[in-house]
Design a protein that fits this description.
The complex is a heterodimer. Chain A is an alpha+beta fold. Chain A contains 18 helices and 32 strands. In chain A, helix 16 crosses helix 17. The longest helix of chain A has 26 residues. Chain B folds into 2 domains: about 70 residues, Beta-grasp domain (Ubiquitin-like (UB roll), Roll), CATH 3.10.20; about 70 residues, Orthogonal Bundle (DNA polymerase, domain 1). Chain B contains 5 helices and 5 strands; from the N terminus they run ββαβββαααα. A 5-stranded mixed sheet of chain B has the order 2-1-5-3-4, with helices on both faces. The termini of chain B are far apart. Classes of the chains: A alpha+beta, B alpha+beta.
Chain lengths: ~775, ~170
């Protein structure tokens, strides 16, 4: 089978599609990349949050006497005197953004809730004084977690994955020759970006607010501040040029940046609020604990007849956050009968938010584990079972796939891994005291589209500036946008400078749902082509131009030089032409709004500041990225320790704008999946509904020594239904399927099916 | 507001070859001294409790965690931060290797990874991938750049060994 090499695709340009090193690489390796909390403003004071130490109840007396006398303390804010705030309905409450607003009332919703804010002249002074705030509570009963006996199940009317069905699941199950039902449980997990949350906020004399904060969506944060403080959007600027990891938790603004802005307003000077690492656990970035029940019915020859997915997940006291797990199940296989239901358990927690591949990561863990179990039950190879149920069109919508090279992914991954040498029986492969396990799993991640704006400026010296408020959270936005503009304009890559992460720049939607690369390459390509057209209009029509050619199409631009295509005149540098026609700049701004909406400011605002325009990129085709992952584990038979020995991932993500950077994201996703499978779990002290492992030593994420060789393979081809330049989603698909592949490998090694993540040693002994 | 005591005469730090006299309290960590007082923000605060390695710097040539070191402990010693690694605008071989191998994504752990990698190479812990993985495990990377970090460290170690590179 021929697998295309993504670098040899015909659609690739001089730069796009090539393995180009990160354009922000030098800034990052020299420590010069300016992350938000590193903005030094004169007169900045420091704020530290005081958290509740009980999970539920009311705040009683707050004794500030001791704290106030501490050195350097300037002000202590509590609910008694904090500024009243307005709610922000930009996205439905709970769908990634909490409705909770700090210091607005005396109610305690969770252990770790911000209940006071100490402002002092230094971080140390604020920290010390915060420890001396004394608070009495009137405690009430709390619900610790999903397993709390007092927890009650609630329905989620209108939730995205609530009550969806096709065919007759019940009838098909009764008729199925082979039936299986299994429950998979997963714990609370944390995004844990290396850069903690926090903000520096400053109010200007004109009533304008500027916030430096790490954000996956500066424009969304701007909207939040505008709503919270009831000030116009144009009075808010959010600056976030570099983001030290996000993985979902930095999608929207949270209480930390809001408190910084409240304090800055109160103090009339810049306030810096840096959450401590423990506070990053007790306030934000949580994937809830989830219980997924899967019921499968199949024929003897392994044809799936029915799939029933019953999801129960935790949410907060305030909001209905849904971490739907059925998204992958609905599209992965040709199952005629399917139902998925969603229930929630309200626990004494803050509102969960997205963690990389929300829904898909955890849903694929359950689905692809269940498929492995079914394969054993039917004595079929796990790949063979998947091929027998291969969906040749979207089973949900009956639309054709825009592209689905999943079969190629299975084949390429299996070949690279050496799958044919696998002995199928559990416990049949070993190396001394180590049991060897080989497992595989697949995954899917949807493509979504949201409009975006971009500005392209050609300067007098021929250099190009690309500007957008969109984020580079590590995926490589800076680099691929420079590649895009360089190709569209015909200039050297090094001549393009990209500015991102600042709401004073053209508006962009969230760097989430793996969408930003596809959206902004599309917007920049469109804008750069318009700038090229304007430049060539000058070349073809301006009196100062040296060229005789009269049509834009008669020119080519290559290496920053303009020439008539027929060779009738010498090439001229862009800078020379700019001088000859007397222009010091050409500046073009375009957006990718639907034409009929593009002129409406209200529609534009909805597009960039809410999720209203986020939807499938194609009305005629179902568009997904696909993957197949293969894992070898070694399990110490005596101690039950699991080590991942090697991983292979084959991905169909369409056209890759920069394979070097895409591969990094795939591997990173697979490593995050390894954490989910083997390491990561929040532990809760159920007496106080408090997170006990609120730090990076006790919440265990993969370290270098955990990670083996990882091979990634691209089997994608350009998909122009998925995006303007042919790419599909890259950022999250790596995590989808990784945990299942590991869990399946552990079963193959040990013969023991652990259906509760993470698979730690005591569960195998 | 009560004035707080500072160390008599301040704390004198030698950072990247330059002397800095800081009027800071004895409890100020080297990390906060670098970031909040000297405004050298290349050294990152990931956990402030010695768990992530993002704040790794060199003190007299050894890799240390700046968040677990008081500024006053390292008075008079040679402190090197990420900003001091490139000399006269020319990148250190480890910095170059990190770019070449795409050994970072978001970049927040990168300063610490690179300082730790230079230490790892100086310590001679680069004979195999396994060794590098072990001796680089004090530096967390949530983007999961680990395989590329290992490749970069081994590549840089070789370059430095063969004389193309230079020591710190």
């Amino acid at each position: 089978m021929a697998v295309p090499n993504s670098e040899s695709l015909k659609s690739n340009g001089t730069y796009l599609g090539r393995r180009i090193a990160r354009s922000d690489g030098v800034a990052k390796v020299t420590g010069r990349a300016d992350y938000a909390l590193e903005h030094d403003l004169a007169g900045t004071v420091h704020a530290v949050i005081v958290e509740s130490t009980v999970p539920s109840g009311r705040i009683g007396n707050i004794d500030l006497a001791a704290a106030r006398t501490m050195p350097g303390v300037l002000r202590i804010l509590t609910h008694a005197d904090a500024l009243p705030l307005k709610s922000c309905p930009m996205v439905p409450a709970g769908s990634v953004m909490e409705s909770f607003l700090p210091l607005q009332d005396d109610r305690i919703r969770y252990n770790g809730q911000p209940i006071a804010l100490v402002v002092a002249d230094s971080f140390d002074h604020a920290t010390e004084a915060a420890g001396r705030v004394r608070i009495d509570y009137k405690t009430e009963l709390a619900v610790a977690d999903i397993d709390d006996p007092t927890a009650t199940l609630i329905d989620v009317p209108g939730a995205p994955s609530s009550g969806l069905a096709r065919g007759d699941a019940k009838g098909a199950l009764a008729a199925a020759a082979v039936r299986m039902d299994v429950v998979y449980t997963t714990p609370r997990e944390y995004s844990c970006p290396m850069e903690p949350l926090g903000a520096i906020a400053a109010w200007g004399n004109d009533g304008g607010l500027t916030v430096w904060m790490p954000s996956q969506w500066a424009e969304g944060a701007r909207r939040a501040f505008s709503d919270w403080f009831a000030i116009p959007m144009n009075k808010v600027r959010v600056v976030s040029p570099f983001v030290g990891g996000g993985f979902g938790v930095k999608v929207t603004a949270h209480a930390d940046s809001l408190l910084a802005a409240m304090a800055a307003r109160e103090m009339r000077r810049p306030v810096k609020l840096a959450l401590s690492r423990p506070q990053n656990f007790t306030g934000n970035g949580l994937r809830p604990a989830i219980r997924q029940k899967l019921t499968l019915g199949a024929s003897e020859d392994g044809k799936l007849q029915v799939l029933i997915h019953e999801n129960t997940s935790e949410t907060s006291v305030d909001d209905d956050y849904v971490e739907g797990g059925a998204a992958t199940a609905r599209v992965m296989y040709a199952v005629p009968n399917l139902s998925s239901t969603q229930k929630l358990v309200r626990v004494s927690s803050f509102t969960p938010s997205w963690k990389r591949a929300p829904g898909e990561a955890i849903g694929a863990y359950a689905l692809e584990s269940a498929m492995d179990e079914l394969a054993y039950k039917l004595k079929l190879d796990p790949i063979e079972l998947r091929l027998r149920n291969y969906a040749s069109q979207d089973p949900e919508s009956a639309k054709p796939w825009s592209s689905r090279r999943l079969r190629e992914a299975y084949e390429a991954g299996a070949r690279a891994f050496g799958w044919e040498r696998r002995s199928p029986e559990p416990r049949s492969m070993r190396d001394g005291r180590e049991l060897i396990g080989w497992g595989m799993a697949g995954g899917a991640f949807p493509n979504v589209h949201t409009p975006g704006e971009a500005r392209v400026t050609i300067a007098a010296d021929g250099s190009i500036e690309v500007a957008s408020s969109g984020a580079d959270i590590g995926g490589g936005t800076y680099t691929i946008l420079a590649q895009t503009a360089a190709d569209a304009l015909g200039v050297p890559f090094e001549q393009v400078r990209v500015r991102l992460g600042d709401t004073s720049l053209p508006r962009a939607p969230v760097a989430g749902v793996s969408q930003i690369a596809n959206l902004l390459t599309g917007a920049v390509d469109k804008t750069a082509r318009a700038a090229r057209e304007e430049l060539l209009t000058l070349a073809s029509s301006h009196a100062g131009s040296p060229f005789k050619a009269k049509r834009v199409n008669d020119f080519t631009i290559k290496d920053g030089k303009i020439a008539p295509t027929d060779g009738s005149a010498e090439a001229v540098m862009i800078s020379e032409l700019m001088r000859m026609v007397g222009r010091d700049r050409i500046e073009v701004t375009r957006n990718t709004m639907p034409a009929e909406k593009a002129s409406s400011e209200a529609e534009q605002r909805d597009a960039y500041d809410s999720f209203k325009y986020m939807g499938p990129p194609s009305s005629t085709h179902a568009t997904y990225a696909w993957c197949a992952q293969f894992v070898e584990v070694r399990v110490d038979e005596d101690y039950g320790t699991v080590r991942v020995r090697r991983m292979v991932g084959a991905f169909d993500c369409g056209r890759l704008y920069n394979p070097k950077l895409a591969e990094s994201q795939w591997k990173g996703g697979m490593i995050m999946g390894m954490g989910e499978a083997l390491l990561e779990a929040i532990h809760i002290d159920r007496r106080y509904a408090r997170i006990t492992n609120n730090n990076l030593a006790d919440y265990v994420v993969p370290v270098n020594a955990d990670v083996p060789d990882i091979e990634v393979i691209s089997v994608g081809e350009p998909d122009f239904h998925a995006s303007a330049l042919g790419g599909k989603t890259v950022g999250e698909i790596g995590v989808v399927g990784a945990a299942a592949a590991i869990a399946n490998a552990v079963f193959h090694a040990t013969g023991k099916r652990v259906r509760d993540l993470p698979i730690t040693m005591e569960k195998l002994m | 507001m009560v004035k707080s005591p500072i160390t008599g005469g301040g704390v004198r730090l030698r950072i990247n070859g330059s002397e800095h006299l800081l009027q800071i309290e004895p409890r100020v960590t080297l990390l906060d001294a670098l970031r909040e007082y000297v405004h050298l923000n290349g050294t990152k605060k990931g956990c402030d409790q010695g768990q992530c390695g993002a704040c790794t710097v060199h003190v007299d040539g050894r890799r240390v965690l700046a968040c677990l070191t008081l500024a006053s402990q390292v008075e008079g010693l040679a402190i090197t931060t990420i900003e001091g690694l490139a000399v006269n605008g020319s990148l250190h071989p480890v910095q170059e290797a990190f770019i070449r191998h795409d050994a970072f994504q978001c970049g927040y752990c990168t300063s610490g990874q690179i300082m730790s990698a230079v230490g790892c190479i100086d310590e001679g812990r680069t004979e195999s991938d396994t060794t590098v993985r072990e001796y680089m495990s004090g530096n967390l990377c949530r983007c999961g750049a680990y395989p590329h970090i290992v490749a970069a460290v081994r590549d840089a170690a070789q370059a430095m060994d063969s004389g193309e590179g230079r020591s710190r």
